[in-house]
Design goal:
It is a single chain. By secondary structure, the protein is mostly helical. It is 73% helix and 0% strand. The chain is globular. 39% of the residues are buried.
Length: 310
């Protein structure tokens, strides 16, 4: 008779599975982007009214909210995607095997609640409701995306891509209460522009991920854009979106750069953008490669905050 796994091994399996399903690399990238924007770009502004205002516990709490909400969002997405993952990613389908579903939902509620409580404390500290309602909105979008919107063509993709753009806006929301009236509009404008670019890149990545998951989504009855329209349409959309992002980014850099030779300092994402176009030039793109290229564009865009002009 086969022996039953011990409670200790079951606990270890749940913890290991929760760690994997949290997608720690993606969470770390989001937290790093927050810090790079804060210490790489904003800290080099000439205006002393912005330098060093968000420090200490409010800064740590702000980064924690990003990490906790992303982690809980990844868990709830895995909770609702059990059947699709067993088809699309059988080697990573841990829910119901290594991780019990009830453990996953409880972990989501605890970590999501912790993120919202920290956001509430931030609102109290900064004397503004903005951090709390932003965190609540992000939590709501993550739940609705996993439970309902993911199967809605394009709408779900836009919703989750918008969350990437919320990281710069989250930093703006934390810095704005301490910025002067003169600086505040500039702060929101610049970080909104950064967020819009991140959202566009994220949308291309989300479409690529949907194209990767067509088989599992179709069997699960999820009518994503990729399931409804097929890979050729997704390829066309990705090319147009990426071209729009590239042209908009290049135009913004040329306007921003003074003198013009400073434009070269903004070119860190360029190699990965060109690689993405090469991948999309094929009639049947390798969607996993495109997804990685989009991730590298986001990472390069965050890293260049250490040297781009202010």
């Amino acid at each position: 008779m086969a022996s039953q796994p011990s409670s200790l091994s079951s606990k270890r399996g749940n913890l290991a599975g929760l760690w994997t399903l949290a997608r720690p690399v993606n969470v770390a990238i989001a937290a790093a982007t927050f810090l790079l924007l804060k210490f790489g770009w904003l800290a080099r502004w000439d205006d002393g009214a912005l330098v060093g205002n968000l420090t200490g516990w409010p800064l740590i709490e702000g980064m924690l909210v990003v990490a906790l909400l992303m982690t809980s969002g990844n868990w709830i997405n895995a909770y609702f995607d059990v059947h699709e993952d067993r088809i699309n990613r059988p080697d990573r389908a841990l829910v119901g095997r290594s991780v019990k579903r009830r453990v996953l939902i409880v972990a989501h509620q605890v970590v999501n609640g912790a993120g919202l409580l920290i956001a509430a404390h931030l609102s109290w500290t900064l004397q503004t409701w903005t951090p709390l309602w932003m965190a609540g909105g992000i939590s709501y979008i993550l739940w609705q995306y996993s439970a309902r919107w993911k199967s809605t063509p394009l709408f779900g993709n836009v919703a989750v891509a918008a969350l990437l753009g919320m990281v710069p806006l989250w930093l703006a929301a934390l810095e704005a209460p301490m910025a002067s009236d003169v600086i505040r509009p500039r702060l929101w404008a610049y970080l909104s522009g950064y967020g819009a670019l991140a959202m566009g890149v994220g949308l291309v990545r989300e479409l690529a991920k949907d194209a990767m998951d067509i088989e599992g989504d179709r069997l699960a009855g999820k009518h994503t854009l990729a399931v409804r329209r097929g890979e050729p349409v997704i390829r066309s959309w990705c090319i147009r979106l990426l071209l729009t992002i590239a042209v908009g980014y290049a135009g913004g850099v040329l306007v921003w750069s003074n003198p013009l030779h400073e434009a070269m300092l903004w070119m860190a994402p360029l190699p990965f953008c060109l690689h993405a176009f090469v991948v999309l030039s094929r009639p049947s793109p390798k969607w996993s490669t495109l997804s990685r290229s989009m991730l590298l564009i986001l990472m390069a865009g965050g890293l260049q905050c250490l040297w781009i002009p202010v």
